[in-house]
Design brief:
- Helix content is 42%, strand content 17%.
- The chain contains 9 helices and 8 strands.
- Strand 6, helix 7 and strand 7 form a beta-alpha-beta unit.
- Helix 3 runs parallel beside helix 4 and helix 4 packs across helix 5.
- It binds pyridoxal-5'-phosphate.
- The site of pyridoxal-5'-phosphate has 12 residues, from strand 8.
């Protein structure tokens, strides 16, 4: 099931790249495996998937340790508690949910020296009622600058989780706004190449508006309990 789901999500991404005049292969797929067993992750790996997203620091670290596969990248995409930064900096290669200065300082100091720099996306809260996570758009430049000064971090881009609006048009408006923020930031920071937006329910709108990475859980692994 997971293998055929993955095939169909990949086919959807290719079709949407064409429909919206995006370059072939310009939209990466992050498979969100939160609350799914390691056996599901292994199945996805057997179908060629190498990037996985997790929301709970311990759960993802356990999976990463059990799997012990250098070809697999683990992305932390959940709310970051400051007492988890050591664990996150050791077991993940990406952190997409950075939203405050204290977390940037801690991830930089906890990233082990024998590992490559940690890839960072700053999470932006684009429609503030929906969730409490993410920085306000006006805080983004300062957080980006701070990240860019850290030797053990690499600033890769921004991530957002908008409230899912009803229509494709309404979803596109929010994502278009994010794309504008992304382009401004990219003009200032040459290491930026990642606009992480779009999940199972709003992948089309995100790809239409320039997402370079979509984070898909349900369409690959099925509903979570
Ligand atoms: C759970 C989650 C996803 C995946 O959501 P689906 O609707 O299952 O595709 C993507 N991004 C984040 C940050 C998540 O927490």
């Amino acid at each position: 099931m997971i293998i055929s789901n993955l095939k169909s999500v990949r086919a959807d991404i290719s079709r949407l790249e064409q429909t919206y005049h995006r370059d072939t292969g310009s939209v990466a797929l992050l498979a969100v495996s939160k609350r799914k067993p390691l056996s599901d992750v292994r199945e996805a790996i057997s179908a060629g998937q190498t990037a996985f997203g997790e929301n709970y620091a311990d759960e993802g670290a356990e999976k990463a340790t059990a799997l012990n596969d250098k070809n697999v990248d683990w992305h932390f995409i959940g709310h970051i508690q400051s007492n988890k930064t050591r664990l996150i900096a050791r077991h993940y290669s990406w952190v997409q949910s950075v939203d405050r200065a204290k977390i940037i300082e801690r991830l930089n100091s906890h990233r082990p020296g024998d590992l490559p720099p940690l890839n960072i996306c700053i999470q932006v809260n684009i429609d503030d009622e929906a969730s409490k996570s993410g920085c306000q758009p006006d805080q983004l430049p300062a957080l980006a600058r701070l990240t860019a000064t850290k030797p053990n971090l690499v600033l890769r881009g921004i991530m957002a989780i908008p409230a899912p609006p009803e229509s494709l048009q309404a979803q596109r408006r929010v994502f278009k706004n994010l794309q504008g923020i992304y382009k401004l930031l990219r003009a200032e920071f040459p290491t930026i190449d990642t606009l992480s937006m779009g999940m199972t329910a709003d992948m089309e709108a995100a790809i239409a508006e320039g997402a370079t990475m979509v984070r898909v859980g349900t369409a690959i692994f099925g509903k979570r309990d």
